[in-house]
Amino acid sequence: MKRSFYEKTKSFFINMGKHYKLLRVLAIIGLAFSMLFHRIYLYFKTGTKRFASTAFILLCFMVGNSFAYPVFQEENGFISGEEKEAEVVAVADSQIALADEQQVEYENIKVLDDEDVVDGYSDSQFHDMENVDKYFLDEILEENADTNFQPLKDSEQAEMESIPEMAMAQKPQFDAGDWKLVLINKQHPIPEDYSFSLGMIKTIKGDMECDERIIDDLLLMMQAASEDGVTLAICSPYRDLSYQEYLFNRKVRAYMKKGMSYMEAYSISSQAVTVPGASEHQIGLAIDIISDTYLTLDEGFAETSAGIWLSQHCAEYGFILRYPKGKEAITSIEFEPWHFRYVGRDAAEVIMKEGLCLEEFWDKYL
Ligand SMILES: [Zn+2]
Q1: Which residue in the list 303, 336, 349, 354 is annotated as catalytic?
Q2: Is the pTM here over 0.85, yes or no?
Q3: pLDDT per residue over 52-76, tens digit each?
Q4: Which domains does the chain have, with CATH numbers?
Q5: pLDDT digits (tens, 9 = 90+) for 154-191
Q6: Residue 279 Cα to ligand 1 middle (Å)
Q7: Any catalytic annotation for residue 336?
Q8: Euclidean distance between CA atoms 333 and 185, whole angstroms
Q9: How far is the CA of 265 from the centre of ligand 1 (A)?
Q10: What is the whole-number distance in angstroms between the Cα of residue 256 and the centre of ligand 1?
């Protein structure tokens, strides 16, 4: 019987398999692999479009993301990793140098006055204070001639003036809860539950507001000054928060226009204008005082007859110089010879006699 080629080949492989078992194993493994690759080949061949579109989406995704890589954000185009590192170091160095330079600038810069800002902080000749209400004693007296305020007679005034001496002899005890002594500064904003009654002093120009409990002493002080030939004028007594905010923000903006960052402008503004929420003007206990001969709120007021009279006599009426010269580091406010704060006669006598600021008084007596 003649065998076909297929049968011959088949029996040849079977015989080979019988004689060499290792060959059989290899053949099986080879067959299994060829079948596997054939399956994969078929799988890709049937899904060509599907895989092509997936690959395309992946490519788009990678290209799109690559633009977010920092190297593309450099204005000068591509730079290598090493260059990049060197540049980072250089930038860090230049920033440190920049910080030093700004520090120097910051220390040398002049603190702006309110009026400097109002007038574009360039022309100091415009310190005319025309937009600030000023109240002179005669304007107050004229309006109140027939009502509440009667100037004291000399004997009564002498009696009033002797009270602080008596109090000193008895070593006054101060109470931290006393409204007159409330400490308001950057570290101690106005307590949320603080309340007071706004009193009005009628003047021919209109009403002037401050804490009603200080009005008598304030008018007595103005009266006494005028008897000594000094004409005082009260300006900007009570200010509500929005006005305080306005003053502060205006100063911050002025500094930012000069090229400062917001933080620098805020920091330097807080030296000149009290931070909103931390002003004694908002609780009606602070009075800015000028005179008829000197209508500017600046350091020069200290040298005027009114400035000198006030520093000598304010304590007799319960007022203190709130931001004295030499205490700037404690009060964080520049010297303000025009800004007076009511603390009551006992405390005022101690504070002015010992040359303290209110912060030091609190440390020592409360
Ligand atoms: Zn003031």
Answers
A1: 336
A2: no
A3: 899 999 999 998 887 765 554 444 4
A4: 118-239+279-365 (3.30.1380.10)
A5: 555 555 555 555 555 566 789 999 999 999 988 888 88
A6: 8
A7: yes
A8: 9
A9: 20
A10: 24
